[in-house]
Amino acid sequence: MNEFLIGLQFLTRIFVVKQSVWTEKSFGESVKYFPAVGAVLGIICAVLVGAINLLNLPLFTGAVGFASLIILTGGIHCDGLMDSADGLFSGREREKILEIMKDSRAGSFGVVSMILVAAIEISTLIELVLLSTWFLCTAIYSAPIIGRLMMVVTIGAFPYARETGMGKAFAQFTTRRTIIFATCETILFLLPLNFIDPIFFLCAAAASLVALIVTWKFASFSTEKIGGVTGDVYGAVTTLVEMFVPITFLLIGNFLR
Question: What is the C-alpha separation between 152 and 35, in angstroms, rounded?
């Protein structure tokens, strides 16, 4: 339970119990509970967006759906996307890329990447509003769960690029068993969708496959450039997956409609 609370506090702005002293072991072992953190975020966002959708304002609902997750996480993963884009697409050598990624200032690649993700995700959510409230809510619920599973996969399957860093503890204590645990956890959280309508579970399964492909491609690209992944890449993967999950729901929903 302590590791879950650590993960919840680190990945979100939700504080159940204020913790200021973490051991490296408990910090690293919190990784296996990341999908559970995603489930908390997914429930909050789905309920919020479902309620707002009652106002019959699709543009506003789509914008709130995108903004709610950023607000709940403090934009930590968006920052990772922007830093990763600035560094990995800079065309520089490894050490310079790592230096750029560590710089807190946003560059042109980072800004453009975030604008593109925001535009695509908001427009996707608006289309989901028009398609079905249930498709909208189940997509928003599933996205942060699958996104954090893919963060676990990235941490466990790819080497950490820096000698030191906050993500080092994650990588040090994440094993194949951690990935298996997080995968079973994800299935457990997504399985209730099957009782609402099997099509929603099918969408979540398809979205997980798409997410795995996106994760593997992006993490492999990072490994090719800098010899591994960093905390920024963890955030970038999560942000990209949270964009592709609603897209998958939308495509399948339109196909079956």
Answer: 9
